[in-house]
User: Fold this.
Amino acid sequence: MSPRRTDTGGRIDRLKTIRFTFDGAPYTGHAGDTLASALLAKGVTLYGRSFKYHRPRGLLTAGVEEPNALVTVLKGEVREPNIPATMVEIHDGLVAISQNRFPSLAWDINAVNQLGGKVLSAGFYYKTFMGPVFGPLKGTRFWMFCEHFIRRAAGLGSAGSAKDPARYERMNAFCDVLVVGSGPAGLMAAKAAADQGARVMLADLEPRFGGSANWSDETIDGAPAADWARRIVAQLEGRDNVRLLPRTTVWGYYDNNTLAALERVSDHKEQPGKGEPRHRYWAIRAKSVVLATGAFERPLVFPGNDRPGVMLAHAAERYANEFGVLPGERIALFTNNDSAYRAAVALKKAGAAVVAIADVRPELSPEMRKLAAEAEAEIFAGHAVVATEGGKALSGLKLQRFDMTNGALIGDARSIHADCLLMSGGWSPTIHLASQAGAKAEWNAARQAFLPPKPTQQWIGAGAFTGSFSTTEAIAEGRAAGLAAAGGQSTPAVLPVVEAVPGDPDPAPVFEIRAKGKSFVDFQHDVTAEDVRLAHREGFVSVEHLKRYTTLGMATDQGKSSNVPGLAIMAEALGKPIPEVGTTRFRPPFAPVSIGSLAAERFGDLKPERLTPMHDWHLANGATMYSAGLWYRPMIYGHAGETVEQAYVREAKATRESAGIVDVSTLGKIAVQGPDAAAFLDRVYTNMFSTLAVGKARYGLMLREDGLAFDDGTTWRLGEQDFLMTTTTANAGKVMQHLEYFLDVIWPELKVHVTSVTDEWAGAAIGGPKARQILAACVTGTAVDNATLPFMGIVRGEIAGVPVMICRLSFSGEMAFEVYSGAGHGTHVWEALVEAGKPFGLVTYGLEALGTMRIEKGHVTGAEIDGRTTARDLHLDWMLSKKKPFIGSAMMDREGLIASDRLELVGLISLDNKPLNGGAHIVEEVDEANPHGSIGHITACCYSPALGKHIALALVKGGKARQGTRAHVSDPLRNRFGPIEIVSNHFFDPDGSRMHG
Amino acid sequence: MLITCPYCGPRDVIEFTYQGDGNRERPDPASQNFEAWNAYVYDRLNPAGDHNEIWQHSGGCRAHLKVVRNTLTHEISSVVFTRGDHGRGDHGSAARGKAEDKS
Ligand SMILES: [Zn+2]
Assistant:
């Protein structure tokens, strides 16, 4: 057996051995162990180095509030930092490493920070690094110099850069009663509510339900409390109206009784089950909530209270009773309340020697004296611990007589030899969720604790959460809360009978022993009592300012154990009672939440995809797909051995020489219909649509209300009151919402209906000198000659037996047609077009060639309509009708929008025949060492097969006036500098002779 | 936060899109009053208390709603269609009738 593992007892399975590594060394533990309990069982005392001073730190707690023992868990290349070892369930193959140590945990170079003492006191960073620069290495510049070293020294665990392959899910749930916490109060509440027939959810952040019943050593109805808990859980398990959520942290309490929870579904497994997520994010809407979240034990603040081997009393009790692990062999206790005596008895029973109990109270009850005798511990009433000794483990401590009325230490200190010191500073109810729900906590002087406020939402508290620290009270309150939450009548009932050691729930009002040495308040952020006082001396009187200045309570544990002692010390410094200093409002999350669980289905294999009707054909015919938003579109149809550039150049060239076809089904399509449809479009577009003839299409531009360009596309008039609007792929949803807003809110009198029909139509654009011949070869029911189908004309006909609508319009600059068919006919029509095109040398082309041809033509897309450009900037002012007002017309002529130095659309030609890059800056002179003086940037670029040059579109200050001049591209990130010529954006066929044919 | 859509019933806020301050008055389209346009496009009330807001039930019936929401408590005291008498209500009841026919 392990040095610290007891032979019997605990909820671990000694027959099941689990192998894992910590800092590269192999360890074993048992099923049911946490990483903390397994390492403690092997005699590990050192778990981490502290944040600022790199002091050695051990386990302080056994649960979610652990501030010291933070580890990084490695899964393959993925690292998850800052996980309390107390919350990691061990499994075969677990790899965990310690943090904030260099080069190793046992030997840490930065521990010299401890010798520096005052150097890193409160506000050190602000004082040293902020402010004006005097001399070479002061203030901000000094910070820049030191930052590298300090970040390394003072960081917590470091995040990884590998992509997380794990799957995350989100679940919405509804219930009548959500019970948070599964101790005796929570179990009773869940059972009472379930008995009423309510739909109940029971969540607990631990893997085992039962809370304190798992380690209290009490009996309930004659059986060990843990067995009683198991029996209640078994009863709940079998019921249809109960959902049990172990390993589930309820971390947020929002409006309308909506709660957020994180379920750690498979972290405790070597491999998740098939289809199983790592984490599941629950959004729970509960009619009523029972908060049975218990309480956190508080540390006492005294010199050396952070030494490895100093632990909270209940945590030791828990290690002994729940995990069968003794945190030490010679144990001393230091307390201001009765609950520590229960721990003393438990540890004695588990086999440890309890050598001393120091109690700040001069008078002790006979019951406590009896418990101390049972533990065979010597009592030091009216004493305090004033120092601890040892390095990486505790070797002893010093006691001194203490007057709790004035905090004075009297007489000489005496030494006690011990390898473990347990402390108890009283208990703070876990009121975080109640505070989040929207009310201020209330100070209770007897309990020396903040108790939950009166509910402002539908919740009921029970058990230690309300300050009722005994199991008997928890059981009664839990049942009553469950009944009330389920809307049941409170009926007298025979409640389970608890046998427990006695104890007064009220501690003595002692938080700190003031003696020489560093006394820690916030263990994780290394904030000492002296730091709090220093902050006060420097004028910080508000608790919010104190928190920010000292960073008290701002670490990953959010001050779960440090809040109240910190406030108490501050109150004393201010000479005010604690409730007047006030507590801060708790905010979500209660405990850290994985970002993956919040992203959930928006990421990874659950992310939705939009596929065009011809998607499978593209894949079967060699397309490399490109994701554009949720859509997948062919990028190129590459031949064997071709690079991307070779492929798109071939595709674009073939299109201009004979013909090409591209899938344009992703364009947004909106049916705009009704008696006022034409009038509506006149208001929405900058140009006229009421004058458009039926059977014709027109290119339109939309502005935003502020006068900036919004979207462009063609709209087809299919009938007097029937228009088909097309939008860019990216803006389809935004344009739809824009139209709906104006119809619903601004012009409800207009009789117009808009319907998104993007998915109803499949679209293929076929362009090139041979395009008309190809159509003529496969279209029936209509002619496609220039008279029947002029530029911007629309005809209906059939291809391969199915109806199609054909509009002659061009994005590529070639004689081109868009062929629309029902989505279900998309592939059929596409194949017929490809077949008909074979004798004419038709190629399929993808987004790259599409982009190349549009750059050659100088057409704008989202890269140029970027929310900052106006119609004039894009040389589209010819589209701004002067005959009517339209959305944006009143604001588009503002001074700043018509200034002469605005960025305007231009074309660029690379003069050194090297490629240009999107995002690169344009400068008048190149200064590689100190790039400056940008006059604009590149929005799109390509190699133009039509020109035989590298070209780009760019937005350049006063661009039109610069046409014909030279400048330089400056792209220091990609180390690209070179000469360019600024030209018109219409590179190719500027008079449009090719498309007009 | 829950918004009770007059057509769909109480729904979670994630089904809705905020469409801006409901107090704004769009000037007459032909108006050249620059101050009025500027106020309409840029000025927003930011009250601590009841606020008139426009929300779209974008993940539901897509209607725009005039919502009175308390910015301190998130309490919603009124939700009506922005279309008022312009037919969205008729629309809704017609569609609902259709749904009932099916069942
Ligand atoms: Zn709705």
About this structure: The pocket of zinc ion is lined by residues B 5, 7-8, 57, 60-61, 63 (CB under 6 Å).
